[in-house]
Specification:
The chain has about 280 residues and is α/β, with parallel strands linked by helices. The chain has one domain: Alpha-Beta Barrel (TIM Barrel). It has eleven helices and eight strands. An eight-stranded parallel β-barrel has the order 1-2-3-4-5-6-7-8, surrounded by eleven helices. α7 links the parallel β5 and β6. The longest helix is centred in the last third of the chain and has 23 residues. The protein is globular and about 55 Å long. The protein starts with a helix and ends in a 9-residue tail after the last helix.
Length: about 280
């Protein structure tokens, strides 16, 4: 099933897919083990910086082969693509999904750039995601400029985009205070647009808010910061406890911690009961 078809199915059924960034084999393993353990389908995301680090082809091959090895249904997605040339290369390479992020441009320019990618993707099976509104990135001021329903309607109509990331109270990175998602706004945007709605910046958002957002129209939830944080924090602690130079013994302990985090997030968005092993 194409990702855009699955997201439309989610839109109708009030469900969501978790979209997780990976940065190397260890974080990719954490994602896929968590998906397998919870019986979940998953979206595997790579950013422009991760592609620069791993290589476009390597990232694709790694994701495909690992998903096959773990027996998990997974889609590969380019996250926050701002380089139009790179976005097109990902489409040509057979990525299941790409995000063209021109959200920091004026509305008309965002429409123009997004439309260009939508047109380029025609004839392929690629899902195209865009962003509208202000969702602060790492290091930016976490001010809230919400996506307006009338603009969302016009944007989707003018571009034909499959999925739309909306600004409804979330932000990338760690929150300075507990975020408050505007659930009524999610519902209103969902009502007036045909696109599947995406929530970026889920790290640190309370579980009950995530579930309400899903019930009201969010079909894809992005997770990145918490994965990096728990993996690196665990790794740093392990380095202090051990002088072992065999990374094959050290890395799996950090992978295990990231797996536990992702399992919890999957249980939340799939409305599964939390497993208590105590």
């Amino acid at each position: 099933m194409r990702l855009q078809d699955r997201l439309q199915q989610n839109k109708k059924e009030g469900k969501a897919l978790l979209a997780t960034n990976f940065y190397n084999f260890e974080t990719l393993s954490a994602v896929l083990i968590a998906a397998k353990n919870t019986g979940s389908d998953i979206i595997l995301q790579v950013s422009e910086s991760s592609i620069k680090y791993m290589g476009l082809g390597v990232a694709k091959a790694l994701a495909r082969s690992a998903a096959h090895q773990y027996g998990v249904k997974a889609w590969l997605h380019l996250d926050h693509g701002q380089d139009v040339t790179l976005v097109k290369k990902c489409i040509d390479a057979g990525y299941d999904s790409v995000m063209i992020d021109a959200s920091e441009k004026p509305f008309e320019e965002n429409v123009k750039i997004t439309s260009q990618i939508v047109q380029y993707a025609k004839g392929s099976a690629t899902n195209v995601e865009a962003e509208l509104g202000y969702i602060s990135k790492l290091g930016q001021d976490q001010k809230m400029i919400y996506t307006q329903p009338n603009e969302a309607h016009a944007f989707v109509q003018d571009t034909g985009v499959n999925a739309l990331a909306i600004a409804v109270g979330s932000a990338h990175g760690f929150y300075k205070e507990t975020p408050q998602l505007q659930i009524d706004l999610v519902q209103e945007i969902n009502t007036v647009t045909s696109a599947a709605l995406v929530l970026h910046g889920s790290s640190g958002i309370p579980d009950d808010q995530l579930q309400e957002a899903i019930k009201n129209g969010i079909t894809k939830i992005n997770l990145a910061t918490e994965i990096k944080n728990v993996f690196m924090t665990s790794l740093q602690k392990e380095f202090l406890r051990s002088d072992d130079i065999d990374l094959r013994k050290v890395f799996p302990k950090a992978t295990l911690q990231a797996t536990s985090l992702i399992e919890d997030k999957l249980r939340t968005i799939n409305f599964l009961k939390t497993v208590n092993f105590s």
